[in-house]
Amino acid sequence: QVQLLESGGGSVQSGGSLRLSCDFTAMPQSEYYCMAWFRQAPGQEREGVAALSSDGMTYYEDSVKGRFTVSRENAQNTLSLQMDNLKPEDTAMYYCAAGTRYYWNGSHAYCRTGPTDFDYWGQGTQVTVFS
Fold first, then answer.
1. CB neighbours (10 Å) of residue 19?
2. How many angstroms separate the CA atoms of 48 and 69, rounded?
3. Could you read off the pLDDT of 25-65 as tens digits, one per residue?
4. Percent of the chain with pLDDT over 90
5. 62-96 pLDDT, tens per residue?
6. Buried b (16+ CB within 10 A) or exposed e, 50-66
7. DSSP string of 41-69?
8. Are 80 and 71 in contact (CB under 8 A)?
9. E strands along the chain, which residues?
10. Is the distance from CB of 3 to CB of 25 less than 8 angstroms?
11. pLDDT of the residue at 73
12. Backbone angles phi, psi at 11, to 5 degrees
């Protein structure tokens, strides 16, 4: 059974860094699968921040490009999100997610990035960036 457990959230000053981790108990059973980080601020919709397919393809939301890096570690059982140059607008609850929906571009599998494209979710970890 796929279960996800996030860690690494906290409070940091604007311009600082945090590293989030998501430990998987198992991977989705599919030829290709996707792992992602979402965030949700109070009163706002949940949005995809970064995603990584089992084929190695990445996605980043425009506002985090060049600042956030998604990767796998620990024999591929941990999904990490390195967040640098954090801004107050990055403040949100961050969720790890996994699923089996993807699209094929002819050579690689890319993740779909809507919340409904993911079946498994962690409990969330709070990130607060103060100015």
1. 13
2. 13
3. 999 999 999 999 999 999 999 999 999 999 999 999 999 99
4. 95
5. 999 999 999 998 777 999 999 999 999 999 999 99
6. bbbbbbebebbbeebee
7. -TTS--EEEEEEETTS-EEE-GGGTTTEE
8. yes
9. 4-7, 10-13, 18-24, 34-40, 47-53, 58-60, 68-73, 78-83, 92-99, 102-104, 109-111, 120-121, 125-130
10. yes
11. 87
12. -110, 135
**Ramachandran assignment for 55, one of left (phi > 0), alpha (psi -120 to 50 degrees), beta (any other):** alpha
Going by DSSP bridges, is the β-strand pair 34-40/109-111 parallel, antiparallel, or unpaired?
Answer: unpaired
Q: Which residues pair with 58 in a beta bridge?
A: 52
Q: How far apart are CA 38 and CA 26, in angstroms?
A: 19
Tokens read off for 62: 């425009």
Task: Classify residue 110 by burial, with Cβ atoms within 10 Å: 0-12, 13-18, 19+.
Answer: middle
